[in-house]
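Entry 12.
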Amino acid sequence: MMPRGWRNSVPLQSALVAFGLAVLTTGWTTMRALRVEAIPDPPSTAIASLETIRRAPQRAKSDVEATVENNLFSIDRSAPVTPYRMPGEPDPSAARAVVQPEKPLVLGTAIATDGRHFATVQLRDGPPMLVRIGDKVGEWTVRAIERGKIVVVSTNGIRTEITVSKPGT
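Predicted 3D structure (tokens):
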């Protein structure tokens, strides 16, 4: 039995509306969960011909005898002279043989407040030149200019800092 003033009770009306919305949402969610969508047809597949199977690439035969002769657990076995390197890994002995190009001589640097830094550099027997970040000096590219020094990178990837030289040196 409902009390007489239920039609005038705002909290009771709000609760009934919320309950109705909850029932509708539950029904809608249940219908969506139970509905099964059609599965699309799979793409057509080509069946391999017997000719392509017969001409499959041949694997190289493994040399079992050589593997047995080079016994992994032999007492006489020693480490190789050069360590194993993964394909594409640089050769450490080749890195030592890299010749560093001639470094430029830094005559001075200027640091501007607007970010336009520049430096005066000179290659041996060359005229002095004004450079900014990104300019090339011989085989070097200027990467940074700071007070009293510049940072350059060679075409070989060698990074170095060069400070301003003292007069007479």
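Annotation: The helical segments are 10-34, 50-54, 64-69, 92-96. The first helix runs from residue 10 to 34.
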